Amino acid sequence: MKFYGNKVNGSYLRDVLPSSDDDVELVKAAIAYGSDASTLLQNCLDNKLRLDIWMRYDHTVPVAPMLLRKLLANVGNNIFCNLVPDILHSKVIFWKGYGAYIGSANLTGKAWNTNIEFGVFISEEELLTANIGHELEEFFDTLASYEEIFPLTEEVIVEQEKIALLRKSLDKQADEVGERQRKHKVWEGPVIHTTPEKAHDAHRARFIREWSNGLSYLRNIATQAPQYRPAWLNESVPAEWQADQFLHAYYYNKVKDGAKHPYEDFYTKNKADPAKALKDGLQWWSRLPEPPSDEDHNCHERAPVIHELLSPENINNLTVEGFAEVCKSNHSTFDHVKRMKLEVLGIDGSWVSLPERVEAFAEWLWARKNQSGQTIKDLLIYVMDSGKPEDIGDRLFEAAYSEKRKFPHFGINQISEMTGWARPELCPPRNGRTSKGLRALGYDVKIH
Fold this sequence. Notes:
Helix content is 49%, strand content 9%. It is of the alpha+beta class.
């Protein structure tokens, strides 16, 4: 965590902007006031990053029309602005995969350079360690759910330009006259007071709805995948695994571009006809003369390890050594552990191989219990072997997000991927890469 106070401590907010070498998937921001297009917006344009930004709307012209015009002009470059009437006052920027800024700075030149501001940048690693990244996601999901929020349009900009002229000429009378000019009425905020319990229930409902949609897309791909099975993939590989590894190959070889993740560009191109994009992708997959990114190893060696160790017959006898093998065979666990600090895992030394780090992670997690007193083995049994098969989405949500059940550094992508390898009949594997592949094909899914 780093404090940014501009001249107070010599750390300027402009310096927190990611470079082209940083691994950023997308950007979400909620900033009340703004006039500057040269910092956050320009950085997103330069690095071809999707930006979803929520800004304030009222009759005092909180966002300069010049900035509004620049935002609207770049919709084709994946810049999307929504306006929150009257009550938005937050200043938060979330670079997914890189970190988050939370502080006092609005989107103005002075706030980013000369004002005395107070804010902190929390790195992606720190967000993961504190297990709070999902709370940022939930903040933006909740913000987007309010019906009173509306997208930026040309009409809104023209209105705000007129009000700005009125304010300049009328001065003291500007508020009253401007309020009569505005088309969207004053919003006093949500009518219903949200308790933590209600927020949790709303999060659950959104998750299960999205998860069910994603599951139907994956199962549809699984019904078609065996017809397009490449020659080097064994016929005995379950259809659900074939679907996952098709998406794995498609994402890493057709979509990802170095440190860039342009799946939103693909989504925009393919959302009108996902079926065609899927057929084209499966035909490409079927003609591959060899696995482009270890798909054979994943299906023939890694997945069977998880399938065997977490089978209904064996899961109750799972040992820490067996759990370490499961973690080493799970793509999202490998990817997560790469970003963990060695000291969190209790490792001393400047260099440790990734498999050794994953083993240390497995031992570290195995020794812990959640607030319900469950071990990690208990949690896996709960997800895979309790309740009805059709309620798997509900159990996955509980395991990843419930305060009583969740474990640090063991989120939804790891749990759902393990479940898909171990019990493909319950659901195909799904992790962040799976979701990106689906979205690139034009399916409207969330990247967890």
